[in-house]
């Protein structure tokens, strides 16, 4: 089982919004079942998938949110925690079987913590995801395949991804990813 509280304690919030979200994440993660979908707030695991040699990130169309987003989702009972969920969801949603932490394959950085509102749908009431976002990389971006036709994938330079994404909080994560990749992510 991942030590989620240790991951959160080691993470440094970089702005007041993330500091508030990090406090929420710690409170939810300390609860009896932090990944329960029945809870109005639950921890999720996601990944910004990159191809470091080209500085590109992978975006996925998310029908429910009607936006280009990163990959990830709910922590399943078989997952050891949000990082395991991010890796599993990444494989399921992209077909990429070589996803590894970057720059350290064994210890992907937690690049961002965000509380994200999710609208009602699929028999679920509106709720919030306490999203822990990790950085994963692939060596074979050409092997990315959407899990279904309604969830297409796009490889974009970070600057273009910043313009394409549908959530301001994801832009924060992408700027951090750009810095790790050696760029600023600013549109040129």
Q: How do you describe this structure in short?
A:
Helix content is 29%, strand content 28%.
Summarize the SSE layout with pairings.
Layout lengths: L3 H7 L5 H14 L11 E11 L4 E7 L4 E3 L1 E4 L7 H13 L5 E2 L8 E9 L8 E11 L15 E5 H7 L3 H14 L7
Parallel strand pairs: 1-7
Antiparallel strand pairs: 1-2, 1-4, 2-3, 2-8, 5-7, 6-7
What does this structure look like?
This protein has one domain: Alpha-Beta Complex (Nucleoside Triphosphate Pyrophosphohydrolase). By secondary structure, the protein is an alpha+beta fold. The chain has five helices and eight strands. Strands 1, 2, 3, 4, 5, 6, 7 and 8 form an eight-stranded mixed beta sheet that branches. The chain has helices spanning 4-10, 16-29, 82-94, 158-164, 168-181, and strands spanning 41-51, 56-62, 67-69, 71-74, 100-101, 110-118, 127-137, 153-157. Helix 1 (4-10) runs antiparallel to helix 2 (16-29) and helix 4 (158-164) runs antiparallel to helix 5 (168-181). Strand 2 (56-62) and strand 3 form a beta hairpin. It is globular, with a radius of gyration of 15 Å. The model has no long low-confidence stretch (mean pLDDT 93).
Main CATH class = Alpha Beta
- What percent of the residues sit in helical stretches (DSSP H or I)? 25-40%
Structural shape: globular
Largest sheet: 8 strands, mixed
Q: Work out the radius of gyration.
A: 15 Å
Name given to the CATH homologous superfamily: Nucleoside Triphosphate Pyrophosphohydrolase
Low-confidence stretches: none
Per DSSP E runs of 2 or more residues, the count of β-strands stands at 8
What is the ordering of alpha helices and beta strands?
A: HHEEEEHEEEEHH
Termini Cα gap: 43 Å
CATH architecture: Alpha-Beta Complex
Domain tally: 1
Mean pLDDT: 93
CATH topology: Nucleoside Triphosphate Pyrophosphohydrolase
Helix/strand class: alpha+beta
Strand content: 25-35%
Number of helices: 5
């Amino acid at each position: 089982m991942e030590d989620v509280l240790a991951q959160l304690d080691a993470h440094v919030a970089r702005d007041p919004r993330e500091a508030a979200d990090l406090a929420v994440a710690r409170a939810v993660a300390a609860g009896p079942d932090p990944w329960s979908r029945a809870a109005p707030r639950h921890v999720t695991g996601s990944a910004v998938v990159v191809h470091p040699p080209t500085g590109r990130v992978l975006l996925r169309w998310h029908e429910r949110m009607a936006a280009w987003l990163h990959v990830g989702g709910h922590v399943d009972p078989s997952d050891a925690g949000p990082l395991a969920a991010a890796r599993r969801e990444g494989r399921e949603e992209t077909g990429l079987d070589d996803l590894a932490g970057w720059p350290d394959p064994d210890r992907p950085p937690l690049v961002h913590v965000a509380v994200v509102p999710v609208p009602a749908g699929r028999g679920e009431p509106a709720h919030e995801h306490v999203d822990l976002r990790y950085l994963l990389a692939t060596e074979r971006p050409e092997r990315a395949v959407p899990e279904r036709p309604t969830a297409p994938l796009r490889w974009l330079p970070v600057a273009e991804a910043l313009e394409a994404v549908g959530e301001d909080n994801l832009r924060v994560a992408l700027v951090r990813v750009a810095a790790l990749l050696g760029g600023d992510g600013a549109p040129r």
